[in-house]
Amino acid sequence: MKMRWLLPLGIFVVLLVFLAMGLTRDPREVPSPLIGKAAPAFELAQLHAPDKKLGTADMRGKVWLLNVWASWCESCRTEHPLLLQLAKANIVPIVGLDYKDKPEEGKAWLAQRGDPYRMSVVDLDGRVGIDWGVYGVPETFVIDKNGVIRYKQIGPVTVDALQQTILPLVRELQRS
Amino acid sequence: MTALARALAVIAFALAGCALAQVVTEDPLDARLKRLETDLRCLVCQNQTLADSDAPLAADLRREIRELAVAGRTDDDIRAFLVDRYGDFVLYRPPLKPKTWLLWLGPFALLLLGAIVWWSVLRRRRAQSTDAVAPSAEAEARARALLEE
User: Fold this and answer.
1) Domain B1-95: which CATH class?
2) Where would you tag: which of A130, B99, B121, B130 has the fewest CB atoms within 10 A of its CB?
3) How many CB pairs (< 8 A) connect A and B?
């Protein structure tokens, strides 16, 4: 007789645990299939020197970050001070990908708020963004010396993400 | 009454005209892309298909898909192009693979479990009903006597 109640109760508890786990996860964070794969190659005009190009090939042999941003992007403003700090610490070069932005506005934005990027390139039509699986700016990728994507931060870089995930990973990759 | 009939006739003609116009102008490539895009998810507004979404990324992806289709790629190639970049999440019909076995087979497993429970309950009930003792001859006689009174 007792079993009659225990079974539905057990099923209910299992369901509850699954639902509770679901609540702690952000449905907007779609895991990227590109982690552990070679970074999609690009060669784009630089933001500050449109006649010069910068590509993934130029970053070979270095651990680097690719930060996808735009002047129209609200939450890029929240991560910006953190990126400036990171740039000042000179731990890892950050390449900025100005995503679907007017170069003039992108340049003005950086002039006003400070420029944390070693180099900036412009993705005018968003094609490179699509190749990298970008679906919401800002996004930040960690790329290793062999040009393999090792991590992707979806949304603004936070202090927690930087200290607990990104920086330890960068140090580990720089040692190897 | 005649006014109403006339108005209805006008509406009917207009509707027929619209339907006809649609049939005539639907380009096979458009139809194919539309079909493909209604099976793909927009990553920005996640509960909309690529065909329905107004998000700028959806527009870019539609442009990309059209270019791939014009270049002669098959629907499977185009789906693979998106899955390589955004993962299985872009597909409204997730593929069957070890990771999705629970998703695809779970409902059938639950159905089977329900059937087993139902069957065992039925069997128990039936066993109980046949166990019930037949009325004794004495009780039957008394019942008959009561009925005949």
Assistant:
1) mainly alpha
2) B130
3) 39
